[in-house]
Write a structure and sequence with these properties.
mainly alpha; 2 domains; 0% strand
Length: 90
């Protein structure tokens, strides 16, 4: 698998960030594409403070809500199938 690296037009920012972070220009180019253009932004990206992190329990709530919505949709679908006689009752 080969990576395709798109050219970034903000060469001055890439060069400066590469020097400040002491990293390859490809890495600083990837950071700039993510909107990270300063040393402090890069520091926050690589070493976030606890208040900058997302709540890990939010994904549990999201999955739960998805499953409830899915169950409601399936229930509605099956009721419609039974109503119109498309499902055979045993």
């Amino acid at each position: 698998m080969n990576w395709i690296i798109e050219e970034n037009t903000d060469n001055r920012t890439i060069e400066q960030l590469s020097k400040e972070l002491n990293v390859n220009k490809i890495i600083s180019s990837m950071l700039v594409k993510r909107g990270i253009k300063t040393f402090n932004q890069a520091k926050d990206f690589f070493r976030p403070k606890i208040n900058q992190l997302h709540d890990p329990f939010l994904i549990v709530y999201s999955v739960f809500h998805f499953l409830v919505a899915f169950a409601v949709i399936i229930s509605f679908y099956l009721k419609q199938q039974l109503k119109h006689g498309l499902l055979l009752e045993k």
